[in-house]
């Protein structure tokens, strides 16, 4: 009697004698289902301090649907928004229990039988970003995954969809800038800040950058200058009556970026030209923005807000992916770079403590699986 082969996990097969085949078709599908490998994941069961509520556990295999793609994660960053989601203070967050992480890069491990355009070995990123990237294997619908160039450095592929894309969208979405214009920003040492400097430089746009007064600020200034910054000031240097006298031959900025709030936001406003716009995309100081009445009446300044997630719906994926490919190509050519520290997954909680600022200012922590 002939033997019948049924597909099992990872493409292996089980030979069954026909008399052993169950009559229930649902049972046959269970035997033939494609399953993901088991996964190791960072999970949290309730909201609270990330170093307290997160734990690393093993998750069982997941049955894959026809349109699913199983991705073996290669790397994923720890972003401030990831921390805020775990704390429960971010406006949009997954229901608990949840796996942490929101962006990253992985390699296609296996695909459902209806998937087209993706094959095992391809590099992909979730675009728009998707929760649950802090685990070794992720199974999601093919619509989530965007295939990228495997020549891009892994850590840049893992981090492109939040910080660099924020920088690019803010440069393009609010003011029509042309070569020779200027922008001003605080938080210039952040990854968004570093990207703004380089993307502006590529467009022949000048950048004026504000950093906090702290140990190593002179070294930070030199690093930003090497990235292409035209001017870098510490906050204490701007304690003058007319900050624009420090600009020499640079034009007054038409556009400013604020991720700090408080006095640092006021300094950005002081630089802006008549009719200028300040875009706020963060509030690291947790202090409010105070604006003088004269800034509105006599300078006609505009205050805007930016939240990347609002622009990252699945209906806008095509536009975002085009911008992501542009950014990744710059990274591949070493025209876009920023500071990161790649940490083995086994050392996740060490990296988390660094991301929480428990060891002072640290580079972006990127987990390598």
Automatic annotation (TrEMBL):
E.C. numbers: 1.3.1.104
Keyword NADP in record: yes
SMART domains: PKS_ER (SM00829)
A single cellular component GO annotation: mitochondrion
InterPro entries with a match to the protein in the record: ADH-like_C, ADH-like_N, ER, GroES-like_sf, Mito_Enoyl-ACP_Reductase, NAD(P)-bd_dom_sf
Database matches in CDD domains: ETR (cd08290)
Localization in the cell: Mitochondrion
Sequence ranges assigned to domain Enoyl reductase (ER) in this UniProt record: 48-367
Alphabetical GO biological process terms: fatty acid biosynthetic process
Gene3D superfamilies hit by this protein: Medium-chain alcohol dehydrogenases, catalytic domain, NAD(P)-binding Rossmann-like Domain
Pfam family, one: ADH_zinc_N
Keyword annotations of the record: Fatty acid biosynthesis, Fatty acid metabolism, Lipid biosynthesis, Lipid metabolism, Mitochondrion, NADP, Oxidoreductase, Transit peptide
Keyword Membrane tagged: no
Catalytic reaction equation(s): a 2,3-saturated acyl-[ACP] + NADP(+) = a (2E)-enoyl-[ACP] + NADPH + H(+)
Major site of localization recorded for this protein: mitochondrion
GO molecular function, one term: enoyl-[acyl-carrier-protein] reductase (NADPH) activity
Family the UniProt entry places it in: Belongs to the zinc-containing alcohol dehydrogenase family. Quinone oxidoreductase subfamily.
The protein, known as: enoyl-[acyl-carrier-protein] reductase
Organism of derivation: Cucumis melo (Muskmelon)
Gene (UniProt): LOC103502939
């Amino acid at each position: 009697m002939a033997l019948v082969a049924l597909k099992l996990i990872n493409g292996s097969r089980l030979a069954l004698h026909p008399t052993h085949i169950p009559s229930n078709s649902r049972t046959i599908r269970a035997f033939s289902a494609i399953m993901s490998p088991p996964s190791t994941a960072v999970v949290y069961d309730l909201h609270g301090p990330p170093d307290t509520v997160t734990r690393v556990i093993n998750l069982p295999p997941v049955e894959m649907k026809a349109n699913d793609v199983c991705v073996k994660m290669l790397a994923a960053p720890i972003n401030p928004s990831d921390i805020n989601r775990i704390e429960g203070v971010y406006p949009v967050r997954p229901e608990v229990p949840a796996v942490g992480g929101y962006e990253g890069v992985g390699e296609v491990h296996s695909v459902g039988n209806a998937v087209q355009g993706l094959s095992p070995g391809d590099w992909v990123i979730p675009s728009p970003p998707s929760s649950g990237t802090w685990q070794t294997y992720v199974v999601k619908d093919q619509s989530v995954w965007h295939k990228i160039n495997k020549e891009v450095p892994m850590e840049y592929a893992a981090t492109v969809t939040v910080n660099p894309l924020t920088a690019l969208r803010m440069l393009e979405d609010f003011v029509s800038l042309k070569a020779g214009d200027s922008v001003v920003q605080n938080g210039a040492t952040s990854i968004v800040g570093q990207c703004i400097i380089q993307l502006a430089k590529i467009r022949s746009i000048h950048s004026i950058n504000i950093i906090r007064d702290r140990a190593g600020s002179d070294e930070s200034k030199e690093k930003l200058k090497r990235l292409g910054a035209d001017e870098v000031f510490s906050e204490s240097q701007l304690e003058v009556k007319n900050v624009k006298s420090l600009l020499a031959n640079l034009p007054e900025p038409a556009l400013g970026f604020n991720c700090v709030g408080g006095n640092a936001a006021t300094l950005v406003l002081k630089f802006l030209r008549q009719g200028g716009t300040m875009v706020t995309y963060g509030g690291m100081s947790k202090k409010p923005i105070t604006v003088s009445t004269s800034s509105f009446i006599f300078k006609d300044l505009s205050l805007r807000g930016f939240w990347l997630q609002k622009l990252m719906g699945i209906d806008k994926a095509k536009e975002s992916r085009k911008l992501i490919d542009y950014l990744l190509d710059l990274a591949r050519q070493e025209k876009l770079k920023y500071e990161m520290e790649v940490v083995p997954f086994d050392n996740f909680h060490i990296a988390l403590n660094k991301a929480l600022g428990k060891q002072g200012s640290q580079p972006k922590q990127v987990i390598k699986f």
